[in-house]
Write a structure and sequence with these properties.
Layout lengths: L10 H13 L2 H8 L3 H15 L4 E4 L2 E4 L1 H24 L10 E6 L1 H18 L4 E6 L5 H6 L5 E4 L8 E9 L1 E6 L11 H5 L2 E5 L8 H8 L5 E6 L5 H5 L5 E5 H4 L8 E4 L8 E8 L6 H12 L4
Parallel strand pairs: 3-4, 3-5, 8-9, 8-10
Antiparallel strand pairs: 1-2, 5-12, 6-12, 7-10, 7-11
Length: 303
């Protein structure tokens, strides 16, 4: 890479580089920056010339950074965030006037629980803010933060690594759900009756043996899983008009029970609840805008 004096660099070019590094896509980077795609391509071209390195190579999977780009990112990313934090400190965050772009990673389950209230609250408190919701899952959420592709992830995730922080939002329990005409739900749902049913389960990873099955395994019994799907929000639709039984998070079915004519029953065996949290990189902890976003997410549970 060429030797370059700081005075010869337009610092806006470094911001463009940082966003391309996170998004690995020129179009998405342009959207994040509020620029046109040609403007971002032009900025990247100037930086390539200035540094004497291609920085990114186009592949079928997006813009792949060169070794020089990886090395630059290691030191540049934290420096840019420190500058942003310093500017944020001098210019306090005002939700009423902000045009900041926020990005949150959520599964469709978390989206259903949080987004209706969150979107309404943000439109009221910060009408000029932008929100991007990126689909994620238990196994992939941390990657969004590590790659800088999300400000925050919300849902159930493994314990975060160092330099990340989390806050517990609530403990989620389970409910058994089925169509109102399901014979098994017309009476008390006993363990014997539960085990004779055909079951539907949700697994974003496509696994046929899930959390509930592991609980049953500890009890020495097994259920008959006839269908596994990868999306939480499809489950309630499949139960209506069928005899399938689903044992899934309570907040998934509770809002839709009346609309879809579903019957809900407590599971006939104890299922440990799971943690729903939001996680963020420590560099955002004292960022006023990020603190506001976290407060808005947590506030969804009390509205």
């Amino acid at each position: 890479m060429n030797s370059v004096h700081l005075s010869g660099i337009d610092l806006n070019l470094l911001s463009v580089f940082d966003v391309i590094m996170r998004e690995r896509n020129i179009t998405r980077a342009a959207m994040q920056l509020g620029l046109t795609q040609p403007a971002v391509s032009h900025a990247l071209g100037r930086l390539r010339t200035l540094l004497g390195d291609p920085l990114f190579v186009r592949t079928p999977h997006g813009m792949c950074p060169t070794a020089a780009a990886e090395a630059l990112c290691t030191s540049l990313g934290p420096a840019l965030r420190q500058i942003a934090l310093a500017l944020e400190t001098r210019n306090p965050f005002d939700p009423a006037t902000t045009t900041r772009r926020f990005s949150i990673g959520m599964s469709d389950y978390a989206s259903m629980v949080f987004l209706p209230t969150l979107c309404a609250a943000m439109r009221k408190a910060a009408p000029g803010a932008f929100l991007t919701v990126k689909n994620t899952s238990h196994s992939k959420g941390i990657d969004l933060l590590e790659q800088g592709r999300a400000d925050l992830i919300v849902g159930n995730f493994p314990p975060p690594p160092t330099l990340m922080e989390e806050e517990l939002l609530f403990m989620e329990d389970f409910v058994c759900a089925g169509g109102k005409n399901n014979p098994a739900l017309r009476r008390t749902l006993t363990m014997k009756r539960y085990l004779t049913q055909e079951h539907l389960q949700v697994s974003t990873a496509g696994e046929t043996h899930g959390y509930v099955d592991r609980v049953l395994e500890c009890l020495g019994v097994k259920r008959d899983v006839k269908m596994t799907i990868g999306h939480f929000l499809v489950a309630p639709l499949l139960l209506e008009g069928s005899n399938l039984l689903a044992t899934e998070p309570r907040r998934l079915f509770l809002p839709l029970a009346k609309k879809l004519s579903l019957a809900l029953r407590p599971p006939p065996f104890p299922i440990p609840p799971f943690r729903v949290v939001h996680i963020w990189h420590s560099r955002h902890t004292v960022d006023a805008g990020h603190m506001w976003l976290r407060k808005m997410v947590a506030g969804c549970l009390t509205m």
